[in-house]
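Protocol step 4 of 6: structure prediction from sequence.
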Amino acid sequence: MIPSLLFTVVIIGAAALIVTAALSPLETLSWWAGWTEDEIEHADARALPPDGAPARFIVYLSGVASISGRFLLPREKAFIRRLKNRLPGATIISDVFPYSPQGLPLLAAPRVFDRLWRRVQKLKLDERPTILSTLINLRNIFQVMVSADHRYGPIFNQGAANVIEDALIAAGYARGSGAPVAIIGYSGGAQVAVGAAAFLRARLGAPIDVIGIGGVVASDPGLKFLRRYHHVVGAHDAIERVGAVMFPDRWAPSAYSDWNAAKREGRLEAHVMANMSHAGVKGYFGRPPIDGVSNAERTAAKIASLLSV
């Protein structure tokens, strides 16, 4: 009975993965063509910030384990709290779902495998790693690849910029105020942040900075529109290294790529975090103390220092 049930679950998971991979570009194109309903109310672009509104706005984009901006993993919530304690005067927005051009979480729109996503969501929030829970990671990785693709990327990234802009305005940001915006992107969220940068700078009329935490980032044209990109990477982060190998334009021989041009111009700076890996206890958001201090605290301290410059 158990082997047959396991076999069924694996088959359903494989089917979900194949369908998701095939539909990844189509989700972006259907949004662009207007085939899908806009289920998120857009913030009033004319909204003005309240008196005494903070001048610093920070947007956090979760990693590929995310299923919704409203349901961050416990370790990410703890990191955001630490960052708020270090930057009390800033507005930190952490409810943006970066892996959809509409910002729709997996459970907010009609999907073929709705029950499967709900089951996987519970496993994720309980921090119980299973084969099924990797489906979300893989589904979101496909969206990261769409963002990095030179054909579909501009469309996807324009949608992501819409979602980020709406979240900023809803939080009190005034377009045209010139107040700088910082986007923190963890893992694949860094690629979406960089991809959306060109559209955000044009619409907000403000400098855009991106901090990638273990960022899997292509040599994206959005790098040209960033004031600064801080590439925070763990010394033992094998996932980030995959990204560095996967995108040839980041290699040294591609001297004139956007990535290498940003490095030459001093707008891209790498910051290596000793003894850190991509996820888990030794990851950027690891909470157990190591030599008396958790990695989450070390990461929060580093990000806060970069934002204070």
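Step 5 (inspection) to follow. DSSP finds nine helices and eight strands in the chain.
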